[in-house]
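Field guide to reading this record: the first block holds the primary sequence, the second block holds the structure written as discrete tokens, and the final block holds curator observations. Each block starts with its own label. This record concerns Fungal-type protein kinase domain-containing protein, catalogued under organism Dichomitus squalens.

BLOCK 1 — SEQUENCE
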Amino acid sequence: MATQSCVYDVPMALDSTLSRTRGLDPSSAMERNNQHLSDCLDHLLGPMPPDDFLDTFLPLSSQENKSGKARSRNAFKDVPVRWAAFDEMCSRLLPALNKCTPKQARCPGFVFEVAATRSLHPREPGFMKPGICCYASDNVAAVHNSSFESRVELGYAELFIDMKPDPMDDFFIDPPSNINDELRDSHEFLRLVEDDPVNAIHTLGQHVAFVTEILARQFRTFLFSISLSGSSARLLRWDRSGCVVTEAFDIRKYPETLCEFLWRFSQTSNAGRGHDTSVQLAPPNEQSLFLNALRIEVRAQLELDDPAIEEAVREHYSPGHVYTIDILRQDLPASMDTTRRYLVSRPVISPLTLVGRGTRGYWAVDVVTRSVAFLKDTWRLTAVEELEAHTLQRLNDLGVRHVPLLAWHGDVCESTHSSERPTARDYQRTSTDRVRSASWLCQVNQRKVHISRRRHYRVVLGTVGYGVSRLRGAEELLHAGYDVYIAMRDAFAKDSRIHRDLSVGNIILVKHPDHPIRKGYLIDWEVSCKVDDVGEAREVGRAGTWRYLSRRMLRPDDYELKHTFQDDMEALFYVVLWCALMYQPHNLTLEELRKFVAEFFDERMPFGPGIVRGGGAKVMNVMFRSYTSTIEFGSKHLGEWINTVADFLSSGDRWKGRDQDKWSNPEHLDVYWATFLQTHTLERDNRFVHVLRSPREDGFTPPASRPPSHHLQSSHTPPLVPSHTSDRPKQESRKRPSSEPNPDAESRMAKRFRSGRARVQQAATKDDRVLECARSPSEGRRRSERLVKKREEEVRVAEEKRQKDRAAEKATARGKGRGGARVVAAGTASKTTRTRTTSETGRGSSRKPRVRRAASYGA
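BLOCK 2 — STRUCTURE
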């Protein structure tokens, strides 16, 4: 066995209060699980034969000694085919998993323990933990010494077992063994979500949520998990490209498959179990070096006094959790001159999705120079030839203003000690793509899966700053926004390049010693690309952050769309508008603000298989100013800027005359913005934070945070299960600043919403396509209500039928003297479910029915 060390239980990014983990609010767990489910459907490969799975992902060593392996015969004979009580199942499964004698063991060096019941609310999404977790023996004490409130189990889990009571609860359906290749290719591997959407989110969506959180709480390249439905098991392997799933096998009948997996798992190296061994715990002297350098940089950026420095440092530092990362310069052999050592601790960005870049972002300290830099850890697409560092270096060389300086970069190697140039095999890369053309593949969710090859990559920037959530006032917002616009124009003029991902997360505020207002920098140029002779992106398709995309890029009916500079201009306008709504005083109530955000920024509606659309409110606003004209900002000049730029945007609409167009030529906005900043005195310190809580959060009381607040949840794809909650926000008491006008008794915004929709209806005679795009999201909610009622009726009918069937079965059993045996039709893909409809008062009325199995942890 290899002796490479690895680290566990790494810190995650904190929210703006520095008191909670960002992005893991329990109140929005169901929405996150829904999103996880939607995201993973295009990236599931299966069913792979278990023997092939083992040979591909856990290959045997030629010198492996199996004398210490416990016998597999009858290993799981005591495990029931299906179970009703979780505790009973664990009492039979755990002894088999942990079997150990003085000479033999099932999985030597590892311990399996129940994790599901180590929670304050084990049945509640957001508080749930996997049924059983596997830990290295050295880490068991750390788990035992932690509180039930923590998520430390996921910080130490080597793998986990997701447990469901019945084989019919399996996520997947294998094709018949004698099926031909053509029929296999069209076989639906996924148990269709439409058959049982609520249970799909509770099970598969929750499984993906566990995987995602483990990958965020550990330094990992991949993760194994086991799905156990009754006695039917599947092995799964997850990485940033997707997941490979095996065929189902019964551990009672075929115990050797699971036993062989556990043995090989115990015998491989830490890297072979998915750990990123390029990260190591820093020695004490380097931990002190990191903390001292960090304090100096935080003081310079935030201009804080000593007592406040320590609080601000917590965003980047967790005591006892400082790590070393050695980065070998791209495509060069390892040496003292080609490797740089950086120290990191708590990230400011943690990966909250499974498939994709999985980006972590750190304030890092160069061990040699002791300077603070920004280290971006990501999984890049290997199909993209131009690396982000190459783009940044080119922009730096061309003199593009307000973009970060490149310091260092390189793909991640398993070892940086070789003096030879690394080969492709030496780099950390995804492996799901290795089987994307296998003959055993079936379709998932009625379409072919999409798998991309990715490679682990790190880039270090010499420029550090704070996100726009730290904005101090209207002055800083518009000055930083203009700096970003300069960066956009410079890149377009000097390199024919557009950014394509203007968002709140891709702008930082940087303090320069000689400038009283922090500068805005445009970061994350990874998806940027060159434009052609007509100003369109050379790459086809939608890119960027949904919330800030332009109206045009939200259209679902044109896959040949290409970004333009004007799309980036529009996205920047939405970024400024978002910041004004979140961090400036205005007249909208919490309820109105939540509705504005949901309709204007977060609307995402299904538009056919795998297609979503949005932007209806943005279309309405361009045509009729239905949204922005209803807002009165505490800063009069900020409101003036927003309304004027909205007019510029509207002037470029096709319904306006071309002689009025002030949008197609970026110079118009540049001149106006620069002149505006020179001629207007904006508020320097009028920050006012609005925190919007979801109605579902009424049942969750977070720790106390800083004053005045309204907390905003991140946007998600609409639930696969239609949901509708009452608009009863939990409004915190707060003193309204004198600069913030009181809202009218009846919201003018609500009136304008209705009148705007009426005008869109009148405009239908002009263009049915515009009407379709501008349709109010409220219609989607009304449709959701109808679907909820329909679903409730289906549940009621199913429950009545179940009761009748059960009564008939009992009567038949009594007549035949056979007791109450359960009959399951062979080969069927449907099943009888136990149902319960809940109103869940205090979390919003008209909640969707929750379909629950006999399966509840601790039931």
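BLOCK 3 — OBSERVATIONS
Residues 764 and 771 are 5 Å apart (CA to CA).
The two ends are 40 Å apart (CA to CA).
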